[in-house]
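Re-run with default settings, no changes from the original entry. Doing this only to confirm the output is reproducible before filing.
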Amino acid sequence: MITVIVEGPGEQAIIPILARRTLAESVRIKCVNASGKANIIRRVRGFEDTLRRLHALGEQRFIILMDGDTTFEPYQSLTQEYLDMPRRATVIANELRVSVVVCWAKIETESWLIAGLAPGCTYCKLARVPAGSANTEHTPPDPKRWLKAQLRQNYTEHVQQCLATHVDLELARQRNASFATFCTHL
């Protein structure tokens, strides 16, 4: 089993679907909602304490997944976060003798979903999707807002799950390197 620590309910809804589609049914994924990125990185030993509790319950393999759009204390920049979080992961991995990988969804996990949308698709209550960016790590700059604007209904976890079920995963890997990287750690 792989335990993925995520920022919120949206990721908690889509990551098991994307992982299952990527890996087939053989690997089990469990998502733990940290209720915000700040709870993963800002607290003294935030994610570390979560991993210790989960390890005590028998978990051995972890992925820490965060959006790459903003950061919180103790980091002053995303660059600092990108440099320090893997170090922290290595420290806790060595302490517990488990696997811990840190991944970022650039810009947000919605950019992963957008990357897998083919032009003209209308599933999941999407309006006719325009031709997308060749690199959704940079465009659109606010993926969640862009996705909301393409829908003929409210943006909900159900819509996120529907999109995760239907997007073209190969297209998503090609158009979003952070999604491709996440897939390699599954």
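Residues 109-176 form one domain. The chain is about 50% helix and 15% strand.
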